[in-house]
Prior knowledge:
The complex is a heterodimer of chains A (265) and B (156). Chain A has 265 residues and is an alpha+beta fold.
Amino acid sequence: xxxxxxxxxxxxxxxxxLLEADENATxxxxxxxxxxxxxxxxxxxxxxxxxARLAELKGMALDGDRVVIGAxxxxxxxxxxxxxxxxxxALGRLAGGIGDPQVRNRGTLGGAIANNDPAACYPSAALAxxxxxxxxxxxxxxxxxxxxxxxxxxxxxxLVTAVMFPRxxxxxxxxxxxxxxxxxxxxxxxxxxxxxxxxxxxGAGAGVFRWREAELRIDAGGGVADLxxxxxxxxxxxxxxxxxxxxxxxxxRVMTGRAIAAVDA
Amino acid sequence: xxxxxxxxGEDVRIDVTDRTLLIHALRDHLRLTGAHMGCDxxxxxxxxxxxxxxxxxxxxxLAGQADGCEVVTIEGLARDGALHPMQAAxxxxxxxxxxxxxxxxxxxxxxxxxxxxxxxxATVRSELAGNLCRCTGYQNIVKAIAAGARDMAGAA
Lengths: 265, 156
């Protein structure tokens, strides 16, 4: 790890001021991605601003028809939350399947969303459910938030404070985990929403996306068997040592079928 | 920077650099060498310790992040010369060969019991996702954790 400064501000305003004052500063939450990245010397921030304990970033509560989850809530906390389990059971199960137990004990929702790893689980739920990401400056629709590989609409110094997920009882997340890392080789979040079936795919390689052709087919009365001949957005799939683009496309079909079957089970 | 910790029941203050990892604070500053650095990528879990009661990989946490927290390492488990039930189960079921990953396995096993109680074999196997062993093929580790979990649940 390159040398750096570590600071743990006592409040959100102080954290924001620290991040805005130094463009090379980085927010540190659970650190389950960031610390391995730093140890591998893949990044060299001047300063880590620890936001993991900030009270303003905690809490899980119903707000009308939405569940508001603080950005610093851990995957373990989300997976064990009765509020989440009651409103969006699939989201709690997704959180309970991220990484491994130690990662879930430290890793946070806000960190995962802001990092936007192309194989992360949470972005698929946010996109499929039309979640809204609340930051220190504004509210951003999930569809506008995830912009590219490891990239989001967040501006320098802007911090995710909470994610608001619309309540959804009929949803399921199914992933094919990489056997070593447990990251999704392909993960599919399917949800029956008021606006129709939503299908978001993660792990394809180029970032989370909605498979709109499949959504339309299901909304038109089609079943899982009707997805086999549907086009997938080829640009979204890449090849790496874990699997070829063709293999990932095959997995996307299979996982989508399983997710829809689980929604309707 | 100065970091205040309660480690295995004892209050300590240590001077570390801002980038010092918790694993290095424990091993190099406090000479608690039970938790091991087994990989460089936070995948192996040999460095697992309990921070405020939950299992974390101490190589993926700065010492500063643990400031004010209670840390329990493998050295803090035995009481008055008697092994913790999870340690005893590893001895009884021969849940180790070289022993390098064992401290992390035992700490994760204790965390597992906290969350899942006396878990069945399938649960134990899935919970071991973040702990790698290169010797045993896991058979006896799984047996040991399942037995330790039963003993802990019975004792509670």
